[in-house]
Amino acid sequence: xxxxxxxxxxxxxxxxxEYRAVRAHVQDRVRRSHPRGTQFEVGVLPGVDGRIAIAxxxxxxxxxxxxVDHAVELFRPSAILFVGIAGALHDDLRIGDVVVAVKVYAxxxxxETDAGLLARPDAHDADHELLxxxxxxxxDHYELPDAPPVHFRAVAxxxxxxxxxxxxxxxxxxxxxxxxxxxxxxxxxxxxxxHVCRVPALVxxxxxxxxxxxxxxxDADGWQPLAARNAADFAVAVIRDYLSQPHEVPAAQPEQSSxxxxxxxxxxxxxxxxxxxxxxxxxxxxxxxxWRTLSRPPPVPxxxxxxxxIEHTALELHLIPVGDxxxxxxxxxxxxxxxxxxxxxxxxxxxxxxxxxxARAVVTGHEFGPRGLLVSRDGVRSxxxxxxxxxxxxxxxxxxxxGRLAIALRILxxxxxxxxxxxxxxxxxxxxxxxxxxxxxxxxxxxxxxxGRTNIAQVPAEESLPATHLERLxxxxxxxxxxxxxxxxxxx
Length: 492
What we know:
methylthioadenosine nucleosidase activity; nine-stranded antiparallel β-sheet; alpha+beta; Nucleoside_phosphorylase_d; 5'-methylthioadenosine/S-adenosylhomocysteine nucleosidase; Rossmann fold; five-stranded mixed β-barrel
């Protein structure tokens, strides 16, 4: 990766008004594209060394998490910030104030019972160094004329726009997340993804409304640009200080390749946990995946619908160890099952279980299922989740499938378990006869066609890869597995 292409800090935003506020600070911008389509601009902040990348992802925690994944694969940044606007939950916060998140709550996790909601909070603390730099920047900020106040509060993030102080969600936040000073829609996904990628993260928000039923009026009065500008100004001050600090450059970063196509080859993790500061020597050609045909393909524990519930069409991935690998002790399985459950979004209320051969965490409800993770004692690692769908059935979107397979690979590979030298990946789509090849951008649809006749589209475990390639070249592996599945659908 050349110096021109690299970025030590990545700033993510959701809305155009947020992106423009950050972009105004960045000079000498150069466009960079992730192979999955996410667009970044890379440039400099005048007067400081080190380049930053910026991106606008759209609303929601899922897009934020995928944005982190793409940023890490493309740049291997030392820090990621999410900068934008938010609604105030505390009465002392005024429109235009800046909130730095000391922690982020994924507030939608919980269990609904006859006694009410039992909260199951998922919280991520801000990175210590970035938070310290933000506190120092706040001291300097107060000396500026007409500078907006900077507050350090928890932030609540979910996939709901809150515009009321009396609705059940508002009461839930007061009861269970009383220290949350602001609410928005992206930071939970971003913080979770940064946590599992082991990238320091910080959230900076400008208050644009009070989440009190007056949002439309306040937005029409033009407060969003002011709030976004205040957040961007403060975030850039933190980034300037951060870039002036000495930081060790990751060993895997220098000169891997000068092309966008090769950069994904040195990508680091996403949703699930990664290899942290352990750096493994990459092959001379980062894209030369070392596939080897197996003389005797191993059996694959394809997911079977053993119950009689109505389920969505599912995408499944299995990593079958090739060669010797230490067996997992039975006594470790319960703890492993709890670990697997913790890797699934808390709002889905995953159920963990074990038997004498495996640990698993499963979501079976119609809203989120079928979804789960499984690890067997002999080292097989499996993950599955529903394909995007509407009332006309499921769709196979190449980009979506590639992104989800990459995330699943990283979750499975980061588990603290005995590891084989090589794995044979296998992928499948169950209920394939209900699937059409399409784009998630077309959902919901008014018509669909091209249904197949087979119930399961399978790519068996006939070829293996080194575990290091699966870990270091995750995006390329996911793209190849997607292509093999797509070939099955397109020839039907």
